[in-house]
């Protein structure tokens, strides 16, 4: 059974400014340099009318993972390919979808994302669902992967908001 997670963060900046920073290629590269882990890179990036689509590769060292996870990872380190597709949803609103593949494992994630103006600034909302298709211990792995995703989202948000300020 998939593990769901909800992430929210607020900013004093308008949604337009937060969105622009979150999808800026140079800022994404800086963010990956600081937070992306081993082998981090932008593997695809394209703008399109009203939006952007990109794929980021993250790495998590095997030493930072619980043994239940590392036992299923070829080569030890975890490689995560994350694709996001963002588009304008109208004044003060940006909508996105995301997919995550944990390379070489039966772990995936899907997300729906939104940045919207609220009183006094904006709010980022992400709803994700992590699925690991491993009999018996899949739920333990889902919990570990979801925990890593939540930590990454918090760190990325903090990084982006510092860059805006």
UniProtKB/TrEMBL annotation:
Domain of life: Bacteria
One Pfam family recorded for the sequence: DUF2505
InterPro entries reported in the protein's UniProt record: DUF2505 (IPR019639)
Name the record gives this protein: DUF2505 domain-containing protein
Organism (species): Pseudonocardia kongjuensis
Source organism phylogeny: Bacteria, Bacillati, Actinomycetota, Actinomycetes, Pseudonocardiales
